[in-house]
Amino acid sequence: MTRLDVRKTHKLYIGGAFPRSESGRTFEALDAKGGFLGNMALASRKDARDAVLAARKAFGGWSTRTPYNRGQVVYRLAEVMEGRRDQFIEQLRAAEGLNDKKATTYVDAAIDRVVWYAGWADKYVQVLGNGNPVSGPFFNLSTPEPTGVVATVAPSGPLLGLVSVIAPAIVTGNTVVVIASEKYPVPAVTLSECMATSDLPGGVVNILTGKAAEIAPWLASHMDVNALDLAGVDDPELAASLEVAAADNLKRVLRAPTAPVDWLAEPTLARLEGLVETKTVWHPIGV
């Protein structure tokens, strides 16, 4: 008996659930040869607002977990991704037209990148924080704390670039709203399924598929978003307008790159440092 194809309905990932766009709109994801891969949910302003609400709701619980526990949770995400490694490889081959070797390299690097950031979850504070030498009978200590809700325009690297902007944000205790690559959205949906079946609480990461030029301005101007990461913005005019909108509530902004980024390069702590606020505490020494 001939079976019917079970076609997948690609959805958004908001608050740990998989809703369709409230607008009912979709767009086509195409493979490297222009062939049809699937209909993707085309997120709207309302979807972006719902994602910010979910991220804010999750922030209190996530940011107050111990750094060691956050590292465990992010490492568990890498475990789930490893279990779907072959699926990711096939998706990168189809979407970007990569050969097996290149697709495998990018998928393995993405999983390793998640593990790398997970390992820093309980260590970055010692590197980025410090005891400050002051004159007087005081201890003066500086320590990094999460910024809050981070809105991110993901780069076109549909898996490695995506996890390279998500992982440093969440290991530091932030929650995230991500606009996935418009050109390569399918791996982002699969990553959201990995998140839903890992230990990551709903709302810590929210993934929207659609047009960055349509959604990003609403996130940049949203007064409950605390930071804006423009890693995937390659239009200078759009980047400048988003920075202006972000200034209304003094959002921390990671500016758009001025040259192509090699996401295979060894990561640094720069993205961790860019999404934290440094709190300094003075404490008198007992007399």
Protein model, in words:
The chain is α/β, with parallel strands linked by helices. The chain has one domain (26-284): 3-Layer(aba) Sandwich (Aldehyde Dehydrogenase, Chain A, domain 1). 43% of the residues lie in helices and 18% in strands. It is built from 10 helices and 10 strands. It has helices spanning 45-63, 67-83, 85-96, 100-120, 124-128, 160-171, 186-196, 212-221, 236-246, 270-274, and strands at 26-30, 36-41, 130-131, 138-146, 149-153, 175-179, 205-208, 227-229, 252-254, 276-284. The strands form 3 sheets. The chain has a 5-stranded parallel β-sheet with strand order 7-6-5-8-9, sandwiched between helices. Helix 8 (212-221) packs parallel to helix 9 (236-246).
How do the strands and helices of this protein lay out in sequence?
Layout: E1 26-30, E2 36-41, H1 45-63, H2 67-83, H3 85-96, H4 100-120, H5 124-128, E3 130-131, E4 138-146, E5 149-153, H6 160-171, E6 175-179, H7 186-196, E7 205-208, H8 212-221, E8 227-229, H9 236-246, E9 252-254, H10 270-274, E10 276-284
Parallel strand pairs: 5-6, 5-8, 6-7, 8-9
Antiparallel strand pairs: 1-2, 3-4, 4-10
Reading side by side through the largest sheet, how are the strands ordered?
7-6-5-8-9
CATH topology call = Aldehyde Dehydrogenase, Chain A, domain 1
Structural class: alpha/beta
Q: Output the CATH homologous superfamily.
A: Aldehyde Dehydrogenase, Chain A, domain 1
Counted beta strands: 10
The radius of gyration over CA amounts to 20 Å
* Helix proportion range: 40-55%
Q: What features would you highlight for this structure?
A:
5-stranded parallel β-sheet; alpha/beta; 3-stranded antiparallel β-sheet; 10 strands; 18% strand; 287 residues
